[in-house]
Specification:
The chain is mainly beta and 160 residues long. It has a single domain, classed as UDP N-Acetylglucosamine Acyltransferase, domain 1. 7% of the residues lie in helices and 34% in strands. Strand 18 and strand 19 form a beta hairpin. It is globular and about 55 Å long. The relative contact order is 0.13.
């Protein structure tokens, strides 16, 4: 973890071995969040992950990136005054699931309960309770929410 003082971690959250986190402008992990082996949060922007969200193995949450518009040099070895960098925020909603090897780009919001299939590249906001997959990313289904929300309420009341 880089800049752990900028990371807020909720109750019962699990961060597996091999996870890399660069806090940048700040990271908030809700309760019962799981970051699987080899996943990462990088880019220097902000990241917020809601309660009960699951981030699969090797998932990359990218909160910022060098711009290649010719206005600045690229990579972190260059002094800040000579670079052009876009920092953004990645928001992962409550109950969202992002499967293995997916990449979420800066400025994206993954809606509550949304699912991202393995190996997908997420470059735009995703609707709540919708299942997406592929590259290019497309909607492939809907995810029912009633049972998941009921079980979460039960857990929060201490009825584990």
């Amino acid at each position: 973890m880089v800049s752990p003082e900028k990371i807020a971690i909720g109750q019962a959250t699990q961060i597996d071995e091999g996870v890399w986190i660069f806090a940048g402008q700040g990271i908030t992990l809700g309760c019962h969040v799981h970051l699987a082996f080899g996943s990462s949060i990088s880019g220097g922007g902000r990241c917020e992950i809601g309660d009960f969200a699951s981030i699969g193995a090797g998932v990359r949450l990218v909160t910022g990136s060098d711009l290649v518009d010719g206005k600045g040099l690229t990579n972190p070895t260059i002094p800040a005054a000579l670079r052009t960098v876009r920092r953004g925020e990645v928001r992962i909603g409550k109950h969202a699931v992002i499967f293995t090897g997916s990449v979420v780009l800066p400025g994206v919001t993954v809606g509550e309960g949304a699912v991202v299939g393995a190996g997908s590249v997420v470059h735009h906001d995703l609707k709540p309770w919708v299942i997406y997959a592929g590259n290019p990313l497309v909607q492939v289904g809907r995810r029912p929410s009633a049972t998941l929300l009921r079980l979460a309420r039960r857990l929060n009341r201490g009825g584990g």
